[in-house]
Amino acid sequence: MREPVRQRLLQLNRDFYAQVAEPFDATRQQATPGLAAILPYFGGDTKDLPGLSEPGKSTRLSVLDVGCGNGRFARLLDEAGIACDYTGVDGSGDLLALAANATVDLAAVNCRFVQADLSRPRWSAALGEGSFDRLLCTATLQHLPGYDLRLAVVQEFARLCPGTIVLSFWQFLTSQRFRSRLIDWSAVGLDETDVEPGDALLPWKQGVFATRYVHQVDEAELHRLVSDAGLALGHTFRADGKEGNLNLYAILQPIA
User: Fold this and answer.
1) Residue 52 lies in a domain
2) pTM reported for the whole predicted model
3) 50, part of any domain
4) Least crowded by CB within 10 Å, which of 8, 69, 119, 242?
5) 106 near 128, Cβ under 8 Å?
6) DSSP-assigned beta bridge partners for residue 235
7) CA–CA separation, 253 vs 168, rounded Å?
8) Tally of structural domains, the chain
9) Residue 232 belongs to domain spanning
10) What's the 3-state SS for the chain?
11) The CATH number of the domain where 229 resides is what?
12) 35 falls within a domain
């Protein structure tokens, strides 16, 4: 992907989240079936979980939530009584402010929030030194234009977390109701020759109209990302949405 095109799409999404932070927050308050299913990977005895090679343990973990948005997952961890040290990272200052406010009184989870743009080199420097026991990144890599950029971020995930990494990817192209909403590239001054297969524009119509760039990381690309990043794919499943399969979840491990 040409760099001017990449930067155009990245700025489109920065503008999108600046426009929709509050309505987006309002629609991201409750646990989805997929998020509920991955909670055990973040606490308690993990020895029987699929795709998890490390022995079971019940110690307090350090958790990095990349693309944390409004901090919903920190609240889910706390509701489940999972004691951990949680760091949430997001590019939207507005969403981080909402996250900080919503998690101020959590009992079991110690939270900190860091603003960082995943598209920029050395984005993780804002986290400081050290590594994390668990890393979560849900519905975020879909906003990074170009396979090379998505791979660089997953490689950084592997460096930041020598333990379990949980990713999810929105499978919007498998749904006719989302395919019917696709916006033509001409709306943002581009055409299909500028972008990659799986790239798309979709509208947001809840409270305000806005356009976002998204990319569908399908199973083939997931396997390529995992292999190129030097990780092992332990387990995948689909959940969420009206169809019950709109998110592809993947549990990743370092190669033994």
Assistant:
1) no
2) 0.92
3) no
4) 242
5) no
6) 251
7) 15
8) 1
9) 3-44+59-254
10) CCHHHHHHHHHHHHHHHHHHHHHHHHCCCCCCHHHHHHHHHHCCCCCCCCCCCCCCCCCCEEEEEECCCCCHHHHHHHHCCCCEEEEEEECCHHHHHHHHHHCCCCCCEEEEEEECCCCCCCHHHHHCCCCCCEEEEECCHHHCCCHHHHHHHHHHHHHHCCCEEEEEEECHHHCHHHHCCCCCHHHHCCCHHHCCCCEEEEEECCCCCEEEEEECCCHHHHHHHHHHCCEEEEEEEEECCCCCCCEEEEEEEECC
11) 3.40.50.150
12) yes
- pLDDT in single tens digits along all 256 residues of the chain: 999 999 999 999 999 999 987 777 667 667 899 999 999 999 854 555 565 555 455 578 999 999 999 999 999 999 999 999 999 999 999 999 999 999 999 999 999 999 999 999 999 999 999 999 999 999 999 999 999 999 999 999 999 999 999 999 999 999 999 999 999 999 999 999 999 999 999 999 888 899 999 999 999 999 999 999 999 999 999 999 999 999 999 999 998 7
The answer to whether residues 34 and 224 touch, using CB atoms and an 8 Å cutoff, is no
Residue 166 resides in a domain: yes
Length of the chain: 256
Helices 219-228/147-160 angle, 10° precision: 50
Place of tokens 């343990």: 57
> What CA–CA distance (Å, rounded) separates 2 from 196?
11
